[in-house]
Design goal:
Blueprint lengths: L3 E6 L3 H6 L6 H15 L3 E6 L45 E4 L10 H7 L4 E7 L1 H14 L3 E5 L3 E2 L3 H11 L5 E3 L1 H9 L2
Parallel strand pairs: 1-2, 1-4, 2-3, 4-5, 4-6, 5-7
Amino acid sequence: MANQALLVMDVQNSVVSRIASDTEYLPRLAKAIDAARAAGVPVIYVVVGFRPGFPEVSSRNRMFGALTSGGANPATADAFQVHEAVAPRLDEVVVTKRRVSAFAGSDLDVVLRAKGIDTLVLTGIATSGVVLSTLRQAADLDFGLVVPADGCLDADPEVHRVLVEKVFARQAEITNLADWAASLRTS
């Protein structure tokens, strides 16, 4: 079996509150996290965050540029903490990224290489955001990829479907959380 890690990406309070279409998402993800922990598979959390004053954010950046006009620092605000239903344990790695991809502006690649990880199991919100961007970059970095379709959410269900069925399937094994968790018990 590959040396894999479960990535839980952008499952932060502010993101979860905007995408309430699947009320079973967090319980389903929590079960997969428990299965990973029980099997000794590292669970790595990826969150978006910035330094006070947002020096990493350009006003030209359409997604994050509005942050520079003031307000609370998302790195410390409760809205940007990992949702309590799937919160990391003290001994689990939390990687802070500065853009959409889990690799952009973070030390994720260093952490993965140090742990000898060669396969990533991608979960998170949103399918068309962090999951897509991370999948593309991870594929370019030669990681094996697994995407549990029900481990990802998007505000647009049709975009989610097209990405999982037509785009991700070209670069990743597509499964679901229950089957992935079951595979850990049979390995």
